[in-house]
Amino acid sequence: MNRIAEQYVKLVLAVGEQDADYVDAYYGPGDWRSEVRSYRKPLSTLESEASSLLAELGTFDTSNAEEPVRLRKLYLTKQLQSVLTRVQILQGTKLSFDEEAKALYDAEPPTRSVQQFEEILRQIDIVLAGKGTLIQRYEVYKKKFIIPIEQLDRVFSAAIDECRARAKKHIELPPAESFKVEYVRNKSWSGYNWYKGNSYSVIQVNTDLPIYIDRAVDLAAHEGYPGHHVYNALLEETMVKNRKWVEFSVYPLFSPQSLIAEGTANFGIEVAFPGKERIEFEHHVLFPLARLDPSSAEQYYKLSDLVSKLSYAGNEAARRYLDGLCSKEEAVSWLTNYALMPRERAEQRVRFFEQYRSYVINYNVGLDLVRRYIERRGGTPDNPIKRWKEFEQLLSSPRVPSALR
Ligand SMILES: [Zn+2]
């Protein structure tokens, strides 16, 4: 399989030459990238290469092999299927939102009804009782929780230090691991981890829109510890360095790996801060650092929990918009009405839909899938040691989404 793995890496790099968002990370041999750049293959050639690699991989009998080898074959198969799909999409193949989610992310996003969102909105309406529309009241309320720009770096640094300390207690991180934070503008996302190899990441924070206090822990845990940075560093250690499985030195963004990556990064926030620990940390450390009123932390996070239950309204907006069932303006209104996003945030989100399409499901479908998987294996909130153990194992193994169900 090593030879197929090498072909897979070169194939992903070649697709990346024609799709700027495709290669999220690559830290394998530099001459493979030069080789790919020296001759630009047409998409139709890349499509047939993906098909032949899949056919060849199918002939490997791993039924008597040890578990990691069986997982490796399944992982390569699912990843290659996603490469094939992405190349077909780049050549003009039209898939529905649900077909695309299945083909690229090995997942079946559920459909949620307007009534379900309305029920959650009713609960938020009670918390934020007053004059004006709900979104107006929500925007006014949230204004009190913006991190002043001059405090941003101190607040993020404190959140990162705390998340790193918490992750280190339970996961053996590579000794030299580190990352740096950069502040950027004009992006359709709010944060991004660029993994560079050798346990090093560059984490970018988009400052186009106001940054609220909850972003500090979300960003530190999701992009850093125990999220993307740790996930990439552990895969590099266990798969690339120890096993010499080169396929893990490349990370194609539009692939099943992203569902595991986003799902674990989001679930990692709950793992790092079980129960009331997050509110305590926010109250005692981050709110004072951000010069915000600590006595409001508890209510803010209760409300945030309610609002996060609206995340599937984002999937519905993306599905409707990408399937051509509503206009851009209607998608923005949908996000404002059902996902409670202020207009500018909603517009940024629709730009995200246009750039990354059904990728949106990876955050919430991924979170729910990972949570159920870890808890089914005994990693419940009342058993934090087991929860961290199962989480670390998931981060260090080549699991595919459909096998977590
Ligand atoms: Zn992420």
| Number of distinct helices | 19
Mean pLDDT: 96
Largest sheet: 3 strands, mixed
Helical amount: 55-70%
* Category by helix and strand content: mainly alpha
Order of strands across the widest beta sheet?
A: 2-4-3
Shape: globular
Ranges with pLDDT <50 over ≥5 residues? Answer: none
Q: What pattern of helices and strands is seen along the backbone? A: HEHHHHHHHEEEHHEHHHHHHHHH
Compile the SSE list and pairings.
Elements: H1 2-16, E1 23-26, H2 30-38, H3 43-58, H4 67-90, H5 97-105, H6 114-127, H7 134-143, H8 152-170, E2 178-184, E3 191-197, E4 200-206, H9 214-224, H10 228-242, E5 250-252, H11 256-272, H12 277-289, H13 297-308, H14 311-322, H15 328-338, H16 343-356, H17 361-376, H18 384-395, H19 401-404
Parallel strand pairs: 2-4
Antiparallel strand pairs: 1-5, 3-4
Helix pairs in contact: 1-2, 1-3, 1-4, 3-4, 4-5, 8-9, 9-11, 11-17, 11-18, 14-15, 14-16, 15-16
The structure holds zinc ion.
Summarize the structure.
This protein has helices at residues 2-16, 30-38, 43-58, 67-90, 97-105, 114-127, 134-143, 152-170, 214-224, 228-242, 256-272, 277-289, 297-308, 311-322, 328-338, 343-356, 361-376, 384-395, 401-404, and strands at 23-26, 178-184, 191-197, 200-206, 250-252.
Keywords:
single chain, 405 residues, mainly alpha, 3-stranded mixed beta sheet, two-stranded antiparallel ribbon, 19 helices, binds zinc ion
